[in-house]
Amino acid sequence: MIQVRRDGHATEAGTLRRLGREFARRRCVSLPGLLEPGLCRAVLDATASARFVDRKIPAGFFRRRMPGGIDSVMRPNPATGFLDTLFNDPSWLALVARLTGLGPLAGFRGHGYRMVPGRDHHRPWHNDAEHGPLLGMSLNLTPAPYQGGVFGLRNARTRRVLARIP
Question: Among 142, 141, 137, which Cα is nearest to 165's?
Fold first, then answer.
């Protein structure tokens, strides 16, 4: 297990090797419980009062002939600033570079968004490499385990599915 804490991060023995092999095979890993519980609660509390604005993703935005989508984007707030600081810590970036074999990593840049059932929120298949990111990260910020959607990763050229994580 890898866990991010207020005072840094903790990694169980053998975890980096095991996850590194998984990343090499699937090009992604799942890190349940990444935020220690107290830290997760603090972030959840800060996002509870956050303002979200629906954003229409136009057809063709990610790739020509791709359908559009809708998501709800979180406006900058203390939670987004805190997460930016947490995930741009040099020791975290070094750990991720070791795990993935990519790097050195310059930093993470992210945004918060939510998918609300019944509101037609969805993100179309897209290729992050077309917009420059070297590595992506999705962090579930809900009080309960996420249900209902699937993270999918596929090779853009061959379209072969590399991973599907519920």
Answer: 137
pLDDT in tens, 92-150: 999 999 999 987 888 888 778 776 666 665 555 555 555 555 677 888 777 777 677 77
Non-local (6+) Cβ contacts of 115 within 8 A are: 71, 72, 121, 122, 123, 149
Is residue 165 a contact partner of residue 28, using CB atoms and an 8 Å limit?
yes
Least Cα distance to 54 among 132, 5, 116 occurs for 116
User: Cβ of 102: how many Cβ atoms within 10 Å?
Assistant: 12
- Helices (H), strands (E): how many in the chain? 4, 7
Among candidates 128, 122, 125, which has minimal Cα distance to 110? 128
